[in-house]
Amino acid sequence: MDKNLLYRCDCKEALNHLIASNIKVDLIYLDPPFNSNRNYSLIFKRKGVTSQQKAFADMWELNKRNRQMVLDFESIIKNSDEISPSLKLFLEAWIDPILNSGTSKERKMLVYLVYMTERLVLMKQVLKDTGSIYFHCDPTASHYIKIIMDGIFGIENFRNEIIWGYRTGGNSKKWYAKKHDVILFYSKSKNWTFHSTKDEIVRQHRKYGHKSFKEYKDNLGYYRYCTRRDIWDDINAIVGQTDGHNQKNVKRIGYNTQKPIELLHRIVKNGSNPNDIILDPFCGCGTTIHAAVQNNNRWIGVDISSNTTQVIKDRLKDIMVTQREDYIYIDGSPETKEDYDKMNAYQKQDWLINEVGGMPNQRKSGDEGVDGEMTMHLGVKAGKDLWGKMVFSVKTGDQCKPEFVRELVGTMKLKKAVMGGLIVDKDPTVNMEIIADKKGELEYSYAKGLPSLYFPKVQILTSQQIIDKMKFNTPPTQIQVQLHKKGQLKLKDQSL
User: Nearest-CA neighbor of 408 among 471, 456, 454, 362?
Assistant: First the structure.
């Protein structure tokens, strides 16, 4: 692999591309979303912004699409050589009862496990025989994931269950404070890369004088170094305002599930050699990539959202110092209408919303007419940024009628959105454009004293226009404003 790779697509597509390209990796770290208490859709968390604060757990609802995925998976596992017979029996025993009579939580877990099993099988194929994988999850799903990984990578290749303990706010009077994540460490074979480090300090009350280890003394007393345990409590989580010592945290870049880079440094250093290839199939804000760069490794990052890959691109600008950081950006977008037509309706909907900079609504049924949302800047008042919401409606297929625009206008009112975007496959009719024009324009000024700009409140784009890289005409988005404030993006005429 001559250059690093950054994919914007489902990691299943990226993994298949790596397999077809005969690219193997040395280490995989993944932190896929599941727990509904984590908000994976919020890229830049700001008080008062709600349009991108939908829990990622909606992705695991047993809707029509996910039900079909589970049913298709039943036939896949029967023919798979990568899944052990015992895991096949386990999954088959789960699928029918939960699919037909399970609780909502059980169904979400089933969909999640099916989704992850498909991708873990592919990850094993791209992993070198000397490679290892670190699966980062929380106690909600870790015990189920361990069963899946035992069945794919082999019980004999299980190395550690690493407990990452941290100190953040929030406790309960009814149970112990839930302050740890689980990282499951597996190798692909009995010969894997691992660099043991004696860097954990053990304090002692007195000098023991054992010949097997050196002892030291400082103003706090005697101490020695020992091999690091599988309990990591010396790296604290990144929180919104303060860390565990009530100090301002300067490391947060705005991504809600950002992991401290020290955590990734440890995994990358211990699990790879310089110049090895590190893969993160759910790379989010790019902390794994950052750690790989700083440890002189090659890297492959994958994320399905254009918002998050943009965050990674901007982060790379800050750390690029050598040719090691050169990379190829691979966009999983369809290049032609023929490619687009190969997608199913759900894939089209998600891709179209992502392409115009929005956040797709994972709840495909009962979505109240909202297929996606986007947060936009509405100006500044009393020194504070004002934000508004744009809602999207996607209508794929041969039909194109005025009712689509009227429904969108009704949804805007219901959701208190200041703008609405309709996406259709066919060219809009004259009546559709007339109805949209009647809603008028949104007046916008980036800051006090600047001339106002005007944006149509209701806009229509076709899928072909989006394939051709056209976007809705809007004020700056939330992400664009944040990048502008960091000096990484210039606003042209207050917009982009």
Answer: 456
What is the Cα–Cα distance from 243 to 232, expressed in whole angstroms?
16
User: What pairs with residue 127 in β-bridges?
Assistant: 25
CB 152 within 8 A of CB 84: yes
Q: What is the pTM of this model?
A: 0.76
> Two tokens at 326?
């050169």
Rounded to 5 degrees, φ, ψ at 253 are -110, 5
Per-residue CA distances from 100 to 67, 71, 103, 363, 487 (Å): 10, 12, 9, 20, 53
Residue 169 has pLDDT above 90, yes or no: no
C-alpha torsion 335→341→342→346, nearest 10: 100
CA distances from 104 to 59, 108, 111, 115, 252 (A): 13, 6, 11, 17, 34
Give pLDDT, residue 209.
Answer: 55
Q: How far apart are CA 29 and CA 207, in angstroms?
A: 40
Query: What's the Cα-to-Cα distance from 3 to each of 207, 269, 277, 324, 339, rounded to whole Å?
Result: 52, 21, 10, 8, 26
Distance CA(262)–CA(210), nearest Å, equals: 32
Q: Work out the number of other CB atoms within 10 angstroms of the CB of residue 205.
A: 7
Q: Where are the alpha helices (DSSP H) in 102-157?
A: 104-126, 142-153
Mean pLDDT for the stretch of residues 249-278? 79
How many beta carbons lie within 10 A of that of residue 156, not counting itself?
10
Please compute Rg for the chain using Cα positions.
25
Domains in the chain and their CATH numbers?
4-192+236-331 (3.40.50.150), 194-234 (no CATH), 347-485 (3.40.1350)
Cα four-point dihedral sign 99, 103, 106, 111: positive
146, 184 contact by CB (below 8 A): yes
